[in-house]
Amino acid sequence: GGGALFDLGPYALGAGKYAFGAHPIDVQCRVTAWHNGVDVAFSLMAVYPEQRVLIGHFGFNTEYCNTLELLGAGMSVRFDKAFTTLPNADTQVLVRASNRASELTPERGDNFALFFADVIAHIQAGQQAILTQNLLDDAIVLAQLMQSAT
Q: What 8-state DSSP symbol labels residue 49?
C-alpha cells in the first residue's frame, strides 16, 4: 500500500551502501507508472564516491521487475530479480570486468530469514548500535530518493 518507492527503494540504495560502502553523492529517481495514485514503478540512478554508479528499475506494473546494475572502474554487475528471488529458482548475476563477461549463480537463500538471523546475532552480541546506525543510514538514503522522485 505504500508504493514501489517505499517498498523497493530502500533495498536498492541499501545494495549500493553494501557494495560501495558509502552513501550516494547524488540520487535521481523517476516514477514511471502510477495506479490509483500509488507509484507502482520507478527507475533510479545513484552516484557514489570514486565514480561508481547504481542504476535500477523496479516495478509492479509489468512482469515483476527489480533489476539492478552496479558500475565502477572497469566493471559492471547486473542482477535481475535482485531482491525477490524465487526459492526454487536460481538467480543469475552477470559480471563484466576488463571486457570479459561471466555469470555467477549465488547460493539460494531466504533473504528474510537471513536478515532476521543477522539481527538476532547482533542483539545477542550486544551490537544494537550497528542496527540503529543501519536504520538511520537507510532513512537518509530513502529521504534522498523521495526528494529526487519526479
A: G
pLDDT tens readout for residues 39-92: 999 999 999 999 999 999 988 888 777 889 999 999 999 988 777 666 677 788
Beta-carbon neighbour count of residue 137 at 10 Å? 14
Could you tell me if 30 and 54 are in contact, meaning their C-beta atoms sit under 8 angstroms apart? no
Alpha-helix residue ranges (DSSP H) falling in 21-95: none
Q: What are phi and psi of 8, to 5 degrees?
A: -100, -20
pTM for this predicted structure: 0.83
Phi–psi pair at 130, nearest 5 degrees: -65, -45
**CB 59, CB 41: distance < 8 Å:** yes
Give, in degrees to the nearest 5, the angle at Cα 112 between 80 and 138: 80
Return the SS3 of 16.
helix
Q: Which residue has the cell 558500475?
A: 71
Contacts of 102 (CB under 8 A, 6+ apart): 94, 95, 96
Reported residue count of the chain is 150
Give the separation between CA 117 and CA 108, rounded to whole angstroms: 16
